[in-house]
Amino acid sequence: MKRAMALALTGSMVLSAASAGCVLAEGAGSVELNVTTTFAGEDGNAQNFKNAVDAWCEKTGNTVSDTSATSDESFKTRVVTDFETGSEPDVLFFFNGADANSFIEAGKVISLDDIRAEYPDYASNMNDDLIVDSLVDGKKYAVPVNGYWEAMFVNTEILEAAGVEKPGADTTMEDFIADCQKIKDAGYTPIACALGNIPHYWWEYSIFNHTSPATHLQVPASVDDEQGQAWVAGMEDIKTLYDDGFFPENTLSGTDDETFAMFTEGKAAFLIDGSWKVGGIASACQSDTEDPSTLDTAKLDKFDVTYVPGNGDRKATDLIGGLSMGYYITQKAWEDPDKRAAAVDFVSYMTSDELVPVFAQHTASALKAAPEVDASQFNSLQVKAMDMMSGVTSLTGAVQDLFQGDCRVSTFDGMPEIVSGKVSAADAVKEGLDAYNK
Q: Which strands, in side-by-side order, build the sheet including 91-95?
C-alpha cells in the first residue's frame, strides 16, 4: 500500500538556524556532524535541505555544520582536495560516477555492505538495483535521493483532434508510427524536435530501441560489430521518421526553443525531453513565466507525459534516467563511534520514505515503495509525471554522456546530413567511433 507523503516540512519541524547549521540549547552535549551537499544557492531543494537538517537536529539533539555549495566544477575540485588534505566532511552528498573515484580508491568512504554489517537496516527502503555501483570496485557507496528521467511529453488536445490514444506501457514504435501518420493527416506536426539543434533525445532513444537496458551503455568497438550496427539502425530510424514528414518543416534549421513552442502552442503532439521540462511546460502555461501564481491550469491540463514507445528488447517502460548523486559516509566519521552512529542516523533520515519524495517530487528515486501523492500540492503535470514513474521497469544512463566532444559531431551536428541522405548513417557512426577510439 502506498504511503501518503508530506510535500513540505511543517513549521513545527523548523528551528531557527545560524549560517553554520542548526543551533541547540547550550549544554545539550550533542554530536556535531560536518555535512557537505549541493543543496545550496539556487538549487530547488536548498530550503528543503535546511528544513530537514533543522528537523533532524531537533529530533536527535545533534548539530550540523553545513558547508554545502552550488554544484559546479570548482565544487567538485574542492571536495576532492578536501579528501586529499584530510579536511573531508563526515557526510557528503556527491556524484557517484568518475568524480568519486579518487576518494573511493583511497578508502576514504564506507561501502553500503560495510555499513550494513553493523546497521543491517541501512538504506533497506531502497531498491538496490537502482543504487549505482562504483566504477572503482563495483561496490555501492552513495545512498540516492533524487535523479532524472527522459520521457515523452504529449499534447492531448492534438491527440484527441486526431483520434489517437496516448502512448502507454505497451505501445511499440510500429504503433507510434501509425499514430504519427494520423496526426499528420489531421494537419498537425507529430514530433516537436529541432534535429539540426538538439537531436539528443531522439538520438538516445533510437539507439536504445536497438540495444537493451543491459547493453545500452556499451560504446561500440566498431561500426561493424553488433552494437555498432544497433547505432546505425537507430540513426536510420530517425531518417525514416524524417522521410515520413513527422518532424517540423524547419527541423533542420529551427532551434529547440522554436520547436518547443510548437508543442506548447498546440501545433505539435509529441516531445521527448527530461524531467526538468515539467517546469518549462508549466512556465509556458503561465501569463508571467516567472510567477507560478499566474498558471493557467486548464491549459496545463492538456499536457501529459508517458513512455517513449519501445522496440525489441527495450520495453516502453525502460527509461533513460538515473540517480547520479547520493549520500556518502566518510571513513573519518566511521572511525569515531559517536559520529558513526550520528552519520548513519542522519543519512537514514535524509533518505527515508517520508523525505525522499520531498526532494525527488516528480523525478526519479530508488524507493521500494512509491509514496501516494497529495495531488493538491502539485500541478497536474507533476502528478502525471509521478504516475508515469510508478510504472517504470528500469532506468538506464545516457550513453551519449560517455560519448562526448568530437565523438558526437558526426551524428549530433551531422544529423541534418544523415536524415537528408547526404551522409549515410553508417559513415556518420563510423566517424564518431573512430574519434572515440582515438
A: 63-66, 32-36, 91-95, 325-329, 143-144
> For 404-417, b where at least 16 C-beta lie within 10 A, e where not — what string?
eeebbebbbebbbb
Residue 27: what pLDDT? 35
Residue 311 grid cell: 522496440
Contacts of 311 (CB under 8 A, 6+ apart): 172, 173, 209, 210
* Length of the chain as a residue count: 438
Residue 35: phi, psi to the nearest 5? -125, 130
- Reduced to 3 states (helix: H, G, I; strand: E, B; else coil), residue 227 is helix
CA-nearest of 117, 171, 14, 21 to 334 is: 117
Residues in the chain predicted with pLDDT less than 70, given as ranges, are 1-29, 370-371, 373
Give the whole-angstrom CA distance, residue 100 versus residue 109.
10
Phi first, then psi: give them for residue 337, nearest 5 degrees.
Answer: -55, -40
Q: What is the pLDDT of residue 162?
A: 98
Burial of 367 (0-12, 13-18, 19+ CB in 10 A): buried
- Long-range contacts of residues 112-119, Cβ cutoff 8 Å, at least 24 apart: 112/139, 112/140, 112/141, 112/143, 113/139, 113/140, 115/329, 115/344, 119/344
Q: Would you state the pLDDT for residue 371?
A: 67
**Domains of the chain, first to last:** 11-147+323-371 (3.40.190.10), 149-320+394-437 (3.40.190.10)
Dump pLDDT digits (tens) for 42-90. Answer: 777 889 999 999 999 999 999 999 999 987 778 999 999 999 999 999 9
CA atoms lying within 13 Å on the CB side of residue 44: 10
Cβ(159)–Cβ(302) under 8 Å?
no
Between the CA of residue 166 and those of 85, 90, 337, what are the distances in Å?
55, 48, 55
- One-letter amino acid of 142: A
> Residue 394: which H helix or E strand, with range?
strand 394-396
Specify which residues 63 forms β-bridges with.
Answer: 32
The rounded distance, in Å, linking the Cα atoms of 399 and 51 is 36
d(CA 181, CA 195): 19
pLDDT recorded at residue 376: 79
Kindly tell me the burial class for residue 53, based on how many C-beta atoms sit within 10 Å of its own C-beta (0-12, 13-18, 19 or more).
buried
